[in-house]
Write a structure and sequence with these properties.
Blueprint: H1 2-36, H2 39-65, H3 79-109, H4 118-145, H5 148-175, H6 180-208, H7 216-226, E1 230-241, E2 244-253, H8 259-276, E3 280-288
Parallel strand pairs: 2-3
Antiparallel strand pairs: 1-2
Helix pairs in contact: 1-2, 1-4, 2-3, 2-5, 2-6, 3-5, 3-6, 4-5, 5-6, 7-8
Length: 290
């Protein structure tokens, strides 16, 4: 119980730090982008603004997802993490629509003049450093606690590093007089965001549609095949709900075994699966071999 509480506290802490970082980056990029007229920085400001919304959703979902099962949610509340990741994907696509439209408009009209100064560079470099720190902390927590919501945030902010680097490159080129580089950089940012959005969206939809987690069924089958007195097994079913994994399997035992013996072997199979698959809930249905 203490480990569970400590885990929830750490997940909430890194999610809250992500919200605070998003507030800082959104405000600073919006101010500098408005003052300089840089579409690259303004696109990053909008991106960070949606990051703020996504981080707030993640913070809420992380808090709710670890609530225990109740009379209305028999499998717990873990799916809300997968829903959070899908909402983040939709927010990222909204970002791209505006960025692509504005970049193409500026390139078509030739209205791409911007003012590049030291603040332009500082805000982008600061963004890279902040995103580097929070993406690493989020990914560590995501792997440690098998959290889809934190993983979505971590992947999101890791791509922010690359997109900010592209904007920085665009500012450098614009400083030499080719102001259209800023709009081109914004289009590259949009392309990066779309790519990551597709990855996040597919993973979230797979979980919401109960697609079996990769390789987990093979792990379960291997454990059942090595269990003593098991003559056969079938109907392995695996599903994710946020950080939790639910496993069902039908196991056939030799007909001469007693109820106590089959129960003992089933308990051992469940224990081995739980040890191999973190945060798994396992149900072994016992059948006598005909």
């Amino acid at each position: 119980m203490n480990d569970h509480c400590d885990g929830l506290h750490e997940k909430k802490r890194v999610a809250l730090l992500s919200v605070i970082a998003a507030v800082f980056l959104t405000a600073s990029k919006l101010v500098i982008g408005t003052l300089t007229g840089s579409l690259g920085i303004l696109s990053e400001a909008l991106h960070s603004g949606l990051d703020l919304v996504a981080a707030a959703i993640t913070y809420f979902c992380v808090h709710v997802s670890d609530k225990p099962a109740d009379t209305e949610h028999h499998y717990g509340h873990g799916k809300i993490e997968n829903l959070s990741a899908l909402l983040e994907t939709l927010l990222l696509f909204i970002t791209c629509i505006w960025v692509i439209y504005e970049a193409l408009r500026r390139l078509a009209t030739g209205h791409s003049a911007i003012e590049v100064n030291v603040w332009s560079y500082l805000v982008v470099i600061a963004s890279i450093l902040v995103d580097l720190g929070r993406s690493r902390s989020l990914m560590r927590a995501a792997k440690k606690y098998n959290s889809p919501a934190l993983e979505a945030d971590a992947l999101h902010f890791s791509t922010d590093i690359w997109s900010s680097a592209v904007v920085l490159f665009g500012l450098v080129i614009a400083g030499f007089g080719w102001h259209a580089a800023d709009s081109v950089a914004a289009l590259v940012v949009a392309a990066i965001v779309i790519y990551v959005s597709c990855r996040l969206g597919k993973k979230s939809i797979d979980a919401l549609l109960d697609k079996a987690p990769k390789h987990v069924a093979d792990i379960v089958a291997g454990i059942a095949a090595q269990a003593p007195n098991v003559s056969s097994y079938h109907d392995i079913r695996v599903r994710n709900a946020g950080a939790d994994v639910f496993v069902d399997i039908v196991v056939h035992f030799e007909p001469l075994l007693t109820i106590e013996q089959t129960h003992a072997v089933s308990d051992e199979i469940e224990r081995m699966i739980r040890a191999a698959v973190p945060r798994s809930t396992v149900f072994v249905h016992q059948e006598p071999e005909q």
